[in-house]
């Protein structure tokens, strides 16, 4: 198998909650207001269709692992019901692969944190390797920084509170192109269903 064929045998995957249309519209307005501020001209804004709250970053997984991942999602969803999620306020954080990101904070609540913890536990139990083991910090990435300096005061001054009911979690494939990442939903599982 050539390197190119081997690369195609793997997919870069993550499991996430997709913000509903009203939340996406509101976050677009927040980003639109920031785009007008010169302090935020050195950022690359996320496309609205790519906004999400990651539950588990899976990294490179084989096509064979996708069945186990979907089965794990179904198993976990059967033990959880829909819940409310609140997104409130902005901040910036650094991570290991970017100079930093601007994020909308997702307020921690027991339902969200338990769903994420159970999902990682079941995925691990099914032999899925490569899971991100950092402390879980729920958020929506809005932009990637091109420079390390950003006005935290300006971000903190942006006040908003958005709510949505979480009824599903989705499995996505991430493909990086020169124009940016493209996320494709591979599967969606409803919370509370036993199928």
From TrEMBL:
Name of the molecule in the record: RNA 2',3'-cyclic phosphodiesterase
InterPro entries per UniProt: Cyclic_Pdiesterase (IPR009097), Phosphoesterase_HXTX (IPR014051), RNA_CPDase (IPR004175)
One of the Pfam families matching this protein, by short name: LigT_PEase
Domain Phosphoesterase HXTX intervals: 18-102
Motif (HXTX 1): 52-55
Keyword Cell membrane: no
Purpose of the protein: Hydrolyzes RNA 2',3'-cyclic phosphodiester to an RNA 2'-phosphomonoester.
NCBIfam families the record matches: 2_5_ligase
Catalytic activity: a 3'-end 2',3'-cyclophospho-ribonucleotide-RNA + H2O = a 3'-end 2'-phospho-ribonucleotide-RNA + H(+)
GO MF term list: 2',3'-cyclic-nucleotide 3'-phosphodiesterase activity; RNA 2',3'-cyclic 3'-phosphodiesterase activity
Tree of life domain: Bacteria
Alphabetic keyword roster: Hydrolase
Gene3D superfamilies: Cyclic phosphodiesterase (3.90.1140.10)
Motif HXTX 2 positions after renumbering to this chain: 139-142
Group of enzyme by EC: hydrolase
Protein family: Belongs to the 2H phosphoesterase superfamily. ThpR family.
Active site: residue positions: 52 (proton donor), 139 (proton acceptor)
Known EC number: 3.1.4.58
